[in-house]
Amino acid sequence: MDRYAVIGNPVEHSKSPVIHGEFARQTGQGIEYGRILSPLDAFRETVLRFRDEGGKGLNVTVPFKLEAFQLTTTLTSRARYAEAVNTLKFEQDRIIGDNTDGAGLVRDIQNNLGIAIERKRILLLGAGGAAQGVLYPLLDQDPALLVIANRTVDRALEMQRKVEQRDVLSRTVSAQTYESLAGLSFDIIINATSAGLTDSALPIPPGIFAADALAYDMMYGRETPFMQFARREGAQVADGLGMLVEQAAESFYLWRDVRPDTRPVIEKLRQ
Ligand code: ATR
C-alpha cells in the first residue's frame, strides 16, 4: 500500500486522516494515511526519513508550510506564487511541492456554495500565510477588484507590490487599512486572519456587505466573531470546512490522479 501522511506540530487535531480515508474508500485506492508529529527543529529530517522509508506524499500543516516550500526540488506555479507548500509528492529524486489551499477555497465558493467569483468585489482580510496562499487562485477567477485589508497594512502593501511585479491583473488589487474600508462594499469577504483563534473581533466597519454578500471564514469548527458580525449584517455565512475537504481532494488528485467526490465527505464531517 502506498503511504501518505499529514505532518505538523501540533497534528493530533488534524482531520486529514479521516478525509483521505474516506476518499480512498470511495475511489477504491489502496492507500494508507497517517499523522506525523514533527519536532519543530527537525522538519527536514522527518520528511526525508518518511520518504526514504517509501512514503509517497505528505500534507503539510502549521507551522511548516514555508519550510516545505524550501525543501522542494520542483514547484507548481501556484505553490511558487503562494510561497508556501501544503502538499509534497515524492518521485524518484524529485520532491514536488504544490499548494492546494487556494484551489480548495475557490472550489468551495464556486462549486459547493454556487457563487461565482468572476466580476465580484472581493475583500480579503489578513496578509499572513493563509491570505498569501489564496490570493492568486482568487485573482485567476477574474474578480472585478480585490482589496487586501490588514491590521499591519505594510504586509498587505507588500502583497500588492508583488502582484504588481508579477503583473497579474494588478489593477484589481489594492491594500487598505481596516478604517479605510468605511463606505466601501463587497460581494465576497474572506477572513484569512487568525483572529478567530483568540475570539478577537476584527475592526470591520458596518455596511461593507453588499446585498446577498458572502462572508467566508477560512476557520472551521467554531463560530468566530467575524461570522457573528456578518450574520448581524445580513450576509450569507460559510466556514472553512468545505475548503478543508476541497484542498484535500486537490492533494489526493495530485497523488493518485483520481478526483474524489467531496460532497458526502463534507456532509459526514458536518454531522
Ligand atoms: P497565518 O499563516 O494563519 O496567515 P500569520 O502569518 O501569523 O498566520 O498571519 C496572521 C494574520 O492574522 C495576519 O494578517 C494578522 O495581522 P497582522 O499582520 O497585523 O499581525 C492577522 N491577525 C491575527 N490576529 C488579529 C487580530 N486580533 N486583529 C486583526 N488581525 C489579526
Q: How are the strands of the largest sheet arranged?
A: 2-1-3-5-6-4
List the ligand species.
Answer: 2'-monophosphoadenosine-5'-diphosphate
Mean pLDDT: 96
Q: Judging by the overall fold, what is the CATH architecture of the largest domain?
A: 3-Layer(aba) Sandwich
Structure description:
The structure is a single chain. By secondary structure, the protein is an alpha/beta fold. It has 2 domains: 2-99, 3-Layer(aba) Sandwich (Rossmann fold); 102-242, 3-Layer(aba) Sandwich (Rossmann fold), CATH 3.40.50.720. The protein has 10 helices and 12 strands. The protein has helices at residues 16-27, 43-52, 65-71, 77-82, 101-112, 129-140, 153-166, 225-232, 241-256, 263-270; strands spanning 2-8, 31-37, 57-60, 74-75, 87-91, 94-98, 121-125, 145-149, 173-176, 186-191, 209-217, 236-238. Strand 1 (2-8), helix 1 and strand 2 (31-37) form a beta-alpha-beta unit. Helix 5 crosses helix 9. The structure holds 2'-monophosphoadenosine-5'-diphosphate.
